[in-house]
Amino acid sequence: MDFTISQNNGTAIVTSNVEKLNASNASGLKAELVVLGKNSVNNIVIDMTASKYCDSSGLSALLVANRMCKDTNGKFVLCGLKPNVQKLIEIAQLDKVLTITSTPEEALAKI
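The chain above was modelled as a monomer; its predicted structure follows.
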């Protein structure tokens, strides 16, 4: 499975199990996010620890999660970014828009 989801007290932790978050699997992440939204999950943490690469499709999926949370007055936190993914997010200036932490524990503390 490309993504693992655990839920606790209205918060979902989505763990990416793919080395590359790209066009071949970003739609799967978006589908998981839609299911969470339909189940009234307002707070989402996405753990990217296992992902060494992300392209524009992957960034799009992350922004979908951010928008979903914002639209329902929830919180979205991204964590565990590898240097290549961090650099892409900084180049796209998304580090100014997204809440980013080093670990899932730090991410949960932000919610």
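The radius of gyration is 12 Å.
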